[in-house]
Structure formats: C-alpha cells, structure tokens
Amino acid sequence: MDIVYIRDLKVDTIIGIYDWEREVRQTVSLDLEMAFDISEAARTDDIRHTLNYKAVAKRLIAFIEESEFLLVETMAEKVAAIVREEFAVPWLRLRLSKPGAVRGSRDVGVIIERGERPATGAASAI
C-alpha cells in the first residue's frame, strides 16, 4: 500500500478548555498520512484513480473552521472519521498539534492511527 500525505495543514478554529480559548481562534496544524493504492493512477495518469489530497485538505479545512472542540483528541477522532469514511482510506496516521499552546514548546498535540495498517512496509512521511 502507498501513502498519500499532507504536511503542516494549518487551520484556525475554536479549540481548548479555558474560557479565553473559547473566545479566540487558534491555529491547529495537521500532518496526515493516508494509505491508498496509487498504482492505477500512476498507470493511467488520471486523478480519478488516486486520493485527491486537495479535496481532502479542502474538506478538513471547512470542517475544522466551522467546528468548536474542547479537546484535540475529539477533533482528531472526527477528522480521522471524515477521511476514512468520505475518502475510502483504509488506514491513516494523524498528527494534530496546537502550536504555542505550552510555553517553552513548539507545539503539543496527539498522534493517532486508525484502520487497517498497510500490508507493505511504508516509511513514515511525518
């Protein structure tokens, strides 16, 4: 299985548990690895046979911008479900982070994997 990825997709949203976080849009960053067989797309040079990363990014941007979550864990689960269900992705690894959320660190967040891991040994793009 092949990996299609999106790295450092930045989206502004309402995220957090503190009162001030409920009033100010913050930036979250997503790194996404998605298992997808690209062999037919490579053979035909036709985008209809691959995972359209632009369509995935646009869908996730729209969803996250319109959403409000308390926890990054909840947002990560919802994002993973959208990708798996709407884009027929059998496995994904998602890194969702809040840059600047903790003083002294670049970012904090979660990394989740959902679905059936690809049979072949694909290297991590994250």
Automatic annotation (TrEMBL):
<dbReference type="InterPro" id="IPR006156">
    <property type="entry name" value="Dihydroneopterin_aldolase"/>
</dbReference>
<keyword id="KW-0456">Lyase</keyword>
<protein>
    <recommendedName>
        <fullName>7,8-dihydroneopterin aldolase</fullName>
        <ecNumber>4.1.2.25</ecNumber>
    </recommendedName>
</protein>
<dbReference type="GO" id="GO:0005737">
    <property type="term" value="C:cytoplasm"/>
</dbReference>
<dbReference type="InterPro" id="IPR043133">
    <property type="entry name" value="GTP-CH-I_C/QueF"/>
</dbReference>
<comment type="pathway">
    <text>Cofactor biosynthesis; tetrahydrofolate biosynthesis; 2-amino-4-hydroxy-6-hydroxymethyl-7,8-dihydropteridine diphosphate from 7,8-dihydroneopterin triphosphate: step 3/4.</text>
</comment>
<dbReference type="GO" id="GO:0046654">
    <property type="term" value="P:tetrahydrofolate biosynthetic process"/>
</dbReference>
<dbReference type="GO" id="GO:0004150">
    <property type="term" value="F:dihydroneopterin aldolase activity"/>
</dbReference>
<keyword id="KW-0289">Folate biosynthesis</keyword>
<comment type="similarity">
    <text>Belongs to the DHNA family.</text>
</comment>
<keyword id="KW-0413">Isomerase</keyword>
<dbReference type="InterPro" id="IPR006157">
    <property type="entry name" value="FolB_dom"/>
</dbReference>
<dbReference type="GO" id="GO:0046656">
    <property type="term" value="P:folic acid biosynthetic process"/>
</dbReference>
<feature type="domain" description="Dihydroneopterin aldolase/epimerase">
    <location>
        <begin position="4"/>
        <end position="114"/>
    </location>
</feature>
<dbReference type="Pfam" id="PF02152">
    <property type="entry name" value="FolB"/>
</dbReference>
<dbReference type="GO" id="GO:0016853">
    <property type="term" value="F:isomerase activity"/>
</dbReference>
<comment type="function">
    <text>Catalyzes the conversion of 7,8-dihydroneopterin to 6-hydroxymethyl-7,8-dihydropterin.</text>
</comment>
